[in-house]
Amino acid sequence: MASVQCFPLDGVLFVSALTPAVSSPSASSPRQQPPLLRRWAGAFVDPAVFDYWAGHLNRLWTWERPLARVVERREAALGAVTLVLQPNRHWHGFIPGQHLNLGVEIEGRRVTRSYSLCDVPRADGRFAVTVQQVDGGLMSTHLCTRTRVGDVLDVGPAFGDLVLPSALQGRYLLLAAGSGITPLMSLVRELAARQMPVPVTLMYWVKTSAHACFVPELQALTQRFPNFQFQLIATQQGGRRIDAELLAPRLADVGAETHALACGPGGFAAQARELLAGQAASFKAEAFTPAVPLNTDSKHQVQVELRRSGRTLEVASGMSLLAALEAQGVRPASGCRMGICHSCVCTKHEGLAEDMNTGERCSEPNSAIRICVSRACTDLSLDL
What is the Cα–Cα distance from 367 to 348, expressed in whole angstroms? Predict the structure, then answer.
């Protein structure tokens, strides 16, 4: 999935380096320091050299680099697949609702994208992601059409704040659009594991019913738990897009006790936030595409100076800086492409930039911006 902006309301068992991968502890487990012997040996070991030779025996054997092998691949819906991965011991687990960065080499270059974990932590350490193929999406196309059981992917640490509190109260309204279902499915599975301790409603928007993931499981949960409700809305088959009238029955009489969580495209998350403002007790949202900036002429050109590389480029003001730079062959570091992993943060030395999700503008010199969700309002100078 979901590829995100968080709106405000987001001891490891040591095993010998040449030992097969072991299960990762849950994300809540404290991370322990490696044993003294390994820390001492680290001063004499080049991790890249170690990984090269150890990888001849088992591709998951690394000195410190987290990797995961695809152990299961299954169709999830039209144009979507679920991949189950077995990580090595260097990956340290997750909390339901979080994301991680997956990396793979495609056409000779390393590509990294963020995907939501759709499962709950398992005893065997495996985890699952469900990926929806995006038109023109390099990574999603690779994962959906070319990735097979046995392939090994780079994995980053889990991140994100779209998680449940340890103490639940009131009732929960979950709003998902498209691949935004994946982190919310993780939360639903966590709630089911906790025997659905509070009333929960999941509303899930898709283009057509064929694009919907997890439907049999969600329908089964409605039979198992009387306080769990599920509504599938197919917008190209007569279903209504999110609006106040559609949400009203879910908030009647109990709005002040409702905790809302939403995930989907930027426009969907922004609209959910606006509709629920002042009605829900709390609201969290993640967007896997930036919201479209208002009153922006995408044809307006600005100059972006890249100080470290000594280049000056002309880019469209209406595009995110990351997309605009990539369109001209520049490949800045990036990860989630939605504003939460901070892989793309860089220093803006001069100029005015705008956060495409919140509309907040930054003119302060030498300030950090996330180029995946920021656009240039004026000429800029970046530390790239």
Answer: 5
Domain range enclosing 79: 36-155
CATH of residue 329: 3.10.20.30
End position of a domain, from candidates 124, 155, 186 = 155
> What was the pLDDT predicted at 196?
97
Which sign does the torsion angle of CA 247, 236, 207, 230 carry?
Answer: positive
Q: What is the DSSP-derived secondary structure letter of residue 2?
A: -
Query: Measured over all CA atoms, what is the biggest interatomic distance in the chain, rounded to whole angstroms?
Result: 66
2-11, 229-238, 300-309: segment of lowest average pLDDT: 2-11
Q: Which residues of 250-279 are buried (b: 16+ CB within 10 A; e: fewer)?
A: bbeeebeebbbbbbbbbbbbbbbbebbeeb
Nearest to 152 by CA among 51, 78, 75, 79: 51
The burial class, CB within 10 Å (0-12 / 13-18 / 19+), for 328 is exposed
Percentage of residues of the chain with pLDDT beyond 70: 81
In terms of Cβ atoms closer than 10 Å to its own Cβ (0-12, 13-18, 19+), residue 152 is middle
Residues forming beta bridges with residue 201, ordered by sequence position: 173, 229
Q: Is residue 255 part of a domain?
A: no
Q: Within a domain: residue 150? A: yes
Residue 188 lies in a domain: no
Give the number of domains in the chain: 2
Quick one: which H or E segment has residue 190?
helix 181-193
Do 116 and 99 form a contact (C-beta atoms < 8 A)? yes
Out of 77-81, 205-209, 327-331, pick the least confident. 327-331
Most confident region among 8-22, 173-187, 241-255 by mean pLDDT: 173-187
Is residue 92 in a domain? yes
Task: Name the residue with tokens 């570091």.
Answer: 333
User: Which of 127, 155, 183 marks a domain boundary?
Assistant: 155
Phi, psi (degrees; rounded to nearest 5) at 369: -130, 155
If we measure between CA atoms, which residue out of 67, 93, 94 comes closest to residue 154?
67
Q: Find the mean pLDDT for residues 168-186.
A: 96
d(CA 222, CA 188): 11
User: What CATH number does residue 61 fall under?
Assistant: 2.40.30.10
| Three-state SS at 31 | coil
Which distant-in-sequence residues (6+ apart) come within 8 Å of 93 by Cβ?
24, 25, 26, 27, 28, 29, 121, 125, 158
pTM to 2 decimals?
0.73
